[in-house]
Structure formats: C-alpha cells, structure tokens
Design a protein that fits this description.
Number of strands: 7
Order of helices and strands: EHEEHHEEHEEHH
Helix content: 25-40%
Mean pLDDT: 86
Number of helices: 6
Low-confidence stretches: 125-130
Structural class: alpha/beta
Strand order of the largest sheet: 1-2-3-4
Largest sheet: 4 strands, mixed
Radius of gyration: 15 Å
Distance between the termini: 5 Å
Length: about 130
C-alpha cells in the first residue's frame, strides 16, 4: 500500500493532470473536503478521454469525468482478497479505507511486487501471506 494522492471534486482536469505527472501516479482518489471520504476515482484514461472529446482541461471539473463511488478495500484485508476483488470488478486501482477515510492506495502492480518480493513465484502463496498494508 502506498499513500494516496487525492484531489477535490471541484478541481479542474489540468490540476489532476499536474498532480498525476508530479506524483508519478496514474490515478487519484477524489475525496470530500470535510471527511476525506473517497467519492470517486480519476485516472489518466479518463483525462485522455476528456481531451479526445474536446473538453478543456482548464474548464472541466474532475467531478464531470471521474468514476463515481469507487470500489474500496479495508486496510485489514489480505492482499489476495484485494487482488480477487480488483480482478472481479475490473479495476486496477483500489483505494484503501479505514473508518471510511482513505488511508492508502493499492494497484495490481503493487500486489504483483509483493508476490515477487516473497520469492515464491506464484501469486497465491505470496499474496496469502501479505496484507494490503
């Protein structure tokens, strides 16, 4: 799990693109200002799609193109279960929550790194012993 990079729903796409570029992330968690609860996700694919459809990066808000109500996982869930959830729901980015607040981010690549770091070679052996934390 990595620290999440977050953005507000009212931010413009140019701000989202800037954050992604400078944080080297391909997704951002869209959070509420007051509770820091994840309300959406925005990825480079959504920004690319918006540009391809002629939307202005300076005038289009994150909330207009972000995927609403993202799939999330609790921080105490085993990595294998997180991987299964991601595969079953067709997502590559998974916000990690604790008490409703976003506390981290995990991507499929992170889970494969955990697998390879365990040296077992197979995802089931390595992921079964690794939590998302």
């Amino acid at each position: 799990m990595r620290p999440p990079t977050t953005i507000e729903p009212d931010a413009h796409l140019a701000a989202a693109a800037y954050l992604m570029e400078h944080s080297h992330e391909s997704s951002l968690v869209v959070v509420t200002d007051d509770t820091h609860e994840p309300v959406a996700m925005i990825t480079t694919a959504e920004i690319t799609r918006a540009v391809a459809h002629g939307q202005s990066l300076e005038n289009t808000r994150v909330s207009h193109v972000a995927t609403a109500k993202p799939v999330t996982v609790r921080a105490d869930v085993a990595a294998e279960d997180a991987a299964r959830l991601m595969l079953s729901r067709g997502v590559r980015h998974l916000p990690v929550v604790d008490g409703g607040r976003v506390v981290g981010m995990v991507e499929l690549a992170d889970l494969w790194e955990a697998c390879l770091a365990n040296g077992r070679g197979g995802p089931n052996d390595a992921l079964a012993r690794t939590s998302v934390r």
